[in-house]
Amino acid sequence: MRVLFVCLGNICRSPAAETVLRERLEREGLAEAVTVDSAGTIDYHLGSEPDPRMRKALRARGYTQWSRCRLVQPQDFFDFDLILAMDQQNLLDLRRLCPRPELLDKLKLAASYCTRHNVTIIPDPYYGQAADFEHVLDLAEDLSQNLIQAFKTQTPLT
Fold this sequence. Notes:
The protein is of the alpha/beta class. It has a single domain, classed as Response regulator (Rossmann fold). It has helices spanning 13-28, 52-60, 76-79, 88-97, 130-153, and strands spanning 2-7, 35-40, 82-85, 107-109. The longest helix is centred in the last third of the chain and has 24 residues, at 130-153. The radius of gyration is 14 Å and the shape is globular.
């Protein structure tokens, strides 16, 4: 299974979700079975690490492995089994970027995997306070827990 998280700039939400899921998969012994990555729909931050505030929040929860910002590529739609958008605009952008209509079924909202929090999107914390970054991590941990459970039970990710 290959999972791609996507947000606007790939510096806050999607790298946080990627980091949380990847490190939790490692703890569960599932790292070999699931590949996780993240990307953005704009190229403002290519090659950058996640936002310093997100890195601080991640470290405070014991997460230490994050990737550098990259842009969604057409090949991603072929390479990944599940592409999770952080909000409706990201989902619309992904639909526009998708190279083939038959690949659209791979696109979903990341928040659809949250069960402890009643949300429809993962909100962008960029212009917010530290608590907003913490909230994103709460949501990332929620959705990661549910994805891992699905991987363990071989439940289809619908």
